[in-house]
Write a structure and sequence with these properties.
Strand content: 5-15%
Structural class: alpha/beta
Oligomer: single chain
Number of helices: 26
Length: 734
Amino acid sequence: MRIGTRPRFVLTICAGSFLLFLVQPMIARMALPRLGGAPSVWNSAMLVYQALLLAGYGYADMLGSLPARRQAMIHLGLFLISAVFLPIGLAGWQPPETIEPAFWVLWLLGASIGPLFFVVAAQAPLLQRWFAIAGGGDPYPLYAASNLGSFAGLIAYPMLVEPLLTLKAQSILWSLCYGALFFLVYASARRLPPAESEVVKADEASPSPHWRTMLLWIALAAVPSGLMLATSLYLTTDIVAMPLLWVLPLGLYLLSFSLAFAVMRGPANLCTLIAPLMLLIGACVAFTGGVDFPVFIALGILMVLFVTATALHARLYDLRPAPAHLTRFYLLMSVGGMMGGLFCALIAPLIFDWTYEYPILLVAAMLLLPPREPFLRLPRLLWEDPRRRVWLGALMLVAGLLLSVIGGGVLVPEWKSPMLKTISFLTIIALSVMALGHRLLTAGMLLYLMLCLSGWDKLSQSVTGMLTRSYFGVYGVADRSASERILFHGTTLHGIQDRRPGRERDPTSYYAPDSGVGQALRHAPDLFGGHARIDVVGLGAGTLACYFRPGQNWRFYEIDPAMIAIARDPTNFTFLSRCQPHADMIVGDARMTLAQQWAGAADLLVIDAFSSDTIPMHLLTREALAIYGRRLAPDGLLLVHISNRYLDLRPVLAAAAKAGGWHARLRHYMPSKQDAGRHYTASVWVALSRYPAQLDRLAGATGPEGWKALPVRPGFAAWSDDHASILPILKIRP
């Protein structure tokens, strides 16, 4: 019996977790064109997922009080009832004009996927409980299998499902898998005995866990969950803004469960042993960013996440209750995971102007590590005497604080030097090694280490208002030199202003006069007359505003109110205040807001909507270009900025142009030696029009050598709302 029980339950749990991790990105792809990219919408979507997951775990916990076979009958019945909502997809409702979209999305997602997501979410805890009742042994290692299934779903969607299948085909495939999962659950339920054994009855008579233990469960689940999200944000903004990079932190987070809940305890014990040292490594890069060595720093913080999450989850495993209380254990784990996610996704952007949640969670992780004897001899000898613990610990805390202040040049800025910083850093490292074995003291040294290594500088930037944060990320305004002020989002440059007298209005960076957009805007009077109607998607620092000419009608579309506030504030940039102080601004997702504007009411439409170093996918589909074409006059001109370090977007625009009846030209601008000191940067722009003579006029006005035919990649299909993937356009560098 046991030979058949374990494989059957493992397969069922893996299949359920696999489907659960497929449905979230799939529904997000379905919803993006309809809901747009506004953060309030996607925060609401995250709340729906978290609430459904928590409800599924709560339902599993409630079923635990019933006889096993009755649990199976109820669960299989809900499986069949939820099948009414197949094939999975979004309901065809349209929101009433009077309702806030963030609230409407709660109803839309809840009604579209709620029952299906709820039933599948209950799989992992419920079947583990059934496994114990069926006499399979310790059920907790099955959670390792569950997370392997989740990891497989996480990798399968961007690598296989999305590139190969349309959304309609994905929906059908998921629905068929749901049916297969029903039969797997039924096969597992057949292993349940008609009456519970004496072992199970004795297990159910075990005392309930203490409330302090349950609070510790929540904390041990919350910190790794929050650290995973904080690592993702920090990694993709401050280290390297590479597409699909978010998969790595989430994948390592899932694998940490598999390692921590595995039967073989060696790897988990090793992670617990080295976790304090890994957290010290994380502290060294928490505030420094990854400008100089992005790959090494990225690998470092990913290792910090994996080792720390494994150590905390291993402690969670060590505190697991008897199988009778298994469902409550997983319910509270779900509560902790939700709390960590809500803190990073919703609360942190409101209360912090930088990703301060990352260093905070590093300190919290150090405090939650299991108490262990340090593996180095010196720290063990230091903390043997209880009286020595008190005075030596206090002395080390004071010394660490003073060293962080001296190294950061806080009290005496004149003392701020690389030598003093290095000496302070090395001394704090030595104190941190001595503090091993004393969690509170080690956490204090961790904090001082981060403050010494640029932490005080980052706090100073926050105090002086140089940083701004929204749900789209962290923006910074800084003076790179006496004459150059920049706007940046992590490692991605979004604007430069020349501060020298008389040059404040000069277009710079990607918008140089001879760039694609610069040429189009400079020659707008020649192309469209003196009353050209110009729409710009993406505000940035407001650089393009200074191409304005009297008589023209301009309108900006910007999804992030924080960006508008930065551009309008003359203490940051003066492009808007000098050139278009009363510029017309429309806040919201560009695709949705453009669809609501008058048709044929724009002569020139500029798409410059960057999210860190990428362009939102739903702005480059066939359907999106149809919306742009509707907005433009018949002879209108569409300019799309496709400069990107990691994606080759030329095939996307070429295929979309061919499918939509557009004609396209490409301009790859490189600053010349004569432009040195003008703060110009290389850029790639594509010009599209349904009136080919307009492109000829643009090339004739600017010089034909600057605009080339947009190359078409054979076999590349145009992106659509139903099918798109970035894998074929990733730039592969040797």
